[in-house]
Amino acid sequence: MAMAALRREGRRFAPLISPRPITAFRSSPLAPTREAEGPIGVRYISTQVVRNRMKSVKNIQKITKAMKMVAASKLRAIQTKAENSRGLWQPFTALLGDTPSVDVKKNVIVTVSSDKGLCGGINSTSVKISKALHKLNSGPENETKYVILGEKAKAQLVRDSKKDIELIITELQKNPLSYTQVSVLADDILKNVEFDALRIVFNKFHSVVSFLPTVSTVLSPEIVEREAEAGGKLGDLDSYEIEGGETKGEILQNLTEFQFSCVMFNSVLENACSEQGARMSAMDSSSRNAGDMLDRLTLTYNRTRQASITTELIEIISGASALEG
Amino acid sequence: MFRQASRLLARTTTATTWRRSRAFSTDLPATPTEDSTFIESWKKVIPNMDPPKTPSSFMTPRPATPSSIPSKITVNFVLPYASELSTKEVDMVIVPATTGQMGVLPGHVPTIAELKPGILSVHEGNDVTKYFLSSGFAFIHANSVADIIAVEAVPLDCVDPALVQKGLAEFTQRLGTATSDLEKAEAQIGVDVHSALNSALTG
User: Fold this and answer.
1) DSSP H helices in A98-203
2) Which architecture characterizes domain B70-156 according to CATH?
3) Name one Pfam family in it (chain A) (predicted).
4) How many helices (H) and strands (E) does chain A have?
5) Contacts of A25 (CB under 8 A, 6+ apart)
6) In chain B, what residues touch A109 (CB-CB under 8 Å)?
7) Higher model confidence: residue A55 or residue B186?
8) How many CB atoms lie within 10 A of CB B194?
9) Which of residues 29-88 of B touch A (CB under 8 A)?
10) pTM
11) Which residues 279-308 in chain A show a CB within 8 A of chain B?
12) What's CA B104's distance to the chain center, in Å?
């Protein structure tokens, strides 16, 4: 019993315990191997390995719990912003309709993803959908390009679609997200990329555990005019009178640019919310997993400890009975 | 220590379960108005993955065009950081279009109007609420729904006249001393906005 206690105290008493060749005393409990040979060849089992593992698993559990709390607080902050920005894209969809199946020559897929990892599968989902859209819109005269926001999508798309990538933007969330920042970004994209249709792929925040991959389509002014003439969803666009500006084309140009920046703003906010929510659930399952692992290790530790005590007792008793004869 | 840990755990799980059961109040459940051609063409090319959602499944449905002119106009006034007015029934709205102040009554012809910095006034009976808009767009639909989207808006009583005068003077001076095109354009924008603010306050 006392020896077991001494063993538990471990290193502190190590220099005091010197191996005694006469009795069946254990050698220094610092031996790192599971089965160590003492000075007279006595065997004992070390619990050091298990104890080290338990300590590291406990640390991991603490870290993941802290990360979950941080993600929860960040989510709360950004959730109100995202909720408030939801009214922004609705007027545009009410006016110009939602045409994801439009057939155009120059498609640009804007993939919104996060910079940091440990957020579950949302970035992989966005990349899968982007690649699928690429496949869907491929045709004899069609070309599809990527504009990537965020490190994680960049890492995945650079591997096989490097020649199709037009623009990569990272470190979006260094400063808190604001409309000014996103509109500058949208301006950048509109200036540098030729497009007939922009398809923005992001994860819409439905609830803390559910994120819906979504595709928003923004058409260029020429395509809007083409679709309006063709009829269908944009058919009654011609019935709208245009106030201001010289020509209808000019107004449509401004309208498209404004629509893109509004839709981008909403999608970036929603994706940020989804990222924090996904990180919360990933870290939660990770800490639960660590807890399970810790339970199993504790059982192993106790078993090992009890086994060594039993072995010790057996050896002492058999030694004593051997002496008695 | 373990009692505290279990209490913390219970608190976090109850918090998360509460959040889980409460979906967004501004989100309607996905209405079946989805783009069927998109879904079909998706399923043909990529049969293993679920098609992504599109904005039409998250839209709050719009009222149909009535046969007779309704008595009130429904206004949605949105800003990037808030929805100021959402489906508010009013008598008249006056928007600052680039061609001048435009009054919108129920039954107005469908219009797309680009807005310049100016006052938006919302008339409801005898109440008039005035906002100063930076710029944006206004859509008036055939079903007497007006969507006004502005980048920035403030209620007129929150504007400080002294600061407006100071800003106007500063930007006029900057316009005079501007050298590059960019500086001239920025100074011109400042002058436009401040003079519009000025006339809004005095007019």
Assistant:
1) 122-136, 151-160, 179-192
2) Sandwich (2.60)
3) ATP-synt
4) 8, 8
5) A3, A17, A19
6) none
7) A55
8) 21
9) 35, 37-38, 41-42, 45-46, 49, 52-56, 58-60, 62, 76, 78-83, 86
10) 0.81
11) 280, 284
12) 17
A22 has a chain B CB within 8 A of its CB: no
pLDDT digits (tens, 9 = 90+) for B153-173: 988 888 888 888 888 899 888
- The tokens 């070309």 sit on which residue? A143
Range(s) of chain B covered by CATH 2.60.15.10: 70-156
Is A214 in contact with B136 (Cβ distance < 8 A)? no
Size of interface A-B (CB pairs under 8 A): 156
Minimal-distance CA residue of chain B relative to A241: B111
Distances in Å between the Cα of A261 and the Cα atoms of A227, A308, A309, B160 are: 21, 69, 71, 30
- For chain B, say whether A121 makes contact (Cβ under 8 Å): no
Tell me the chain A residues in contact with residue B86 when contact means C-beta distances shorter than 8 Å: 87
For the CA atoms of B11, B17, B21, B25, the dihedral, rounded to the nearest 10 degrees, stands at 50
Residue with tokens 């799980």: B13
End-to-end CA gap in chain A: 26
Average pLDDT in chain B: 82
Measured distance CA(A185)–CA(A169) in Å, rounded = 9
> Looking at this protein, which amino acid is placed at residue B140?
I
The predicted structure's pLDDT at residue B142: 87
> Which range among B29-33, B49-53, B108-112 shows the weakest confidence by mean pLDDT?
B29-33
Contact between chains at B53 and A93 (C-beta distance less than 8 A): no
pLDDT for the residue numbered B33: 54
Give this complex's ipTM: 0.78
Assigned token pair, B93: 């709205």
- pLDDT-based confidence at residue B18 (cuts at 50, 70, 90): very low
Tell me the one-letter amino acid at B176.
G
Which DSSP helix (H) or strand (E) runs through A83? Answer: helix A48-84
- The CA distance from A284 to A70, in Å, is 12
CA-based R_g, chain A, Å? 32
- How confident is the model at residue B24, as a pLDDT? 53
Mean pLDDT, each 10-residue run in order, chain A (325 residues): 52 44 44 49 75 96 97 94 91 87 90 93 94 89 92 93 91 90 93 92 93 93 87 77 80 92 95 96 96 96 93 94 89
* A40: CB partners within 8 A, 6+ apart: A21
Contact status of A216 with chain B (Cβ, < 8 Å): yes
Interface-testing mutation among B34, B78, B85, B135, with chain A (most A C-beta atoms within 10 A): B78
Question: Whole-angstrom Cα distance, residue A279 to residue A272?
Answer: 11
3-state secondary structure chain B: CHHHHHHHHHHHHHHHHHHHHCCCCCCCCCCCCCCHHHHHHHHHHCCCCCCCECHHHCCCCCCCCCCCCCCCEEEEEEECCEEEEEEEEECEEEEEECCEEEEECCCCCCEEEEECCEEEEEEECCEEEEEEECCEEEEECCCCEEEEEECCEEEHHHCCHHHHHHHHHHHHHHHHHCCCHHHHHHHHHHHHHHHHHHHHHHC
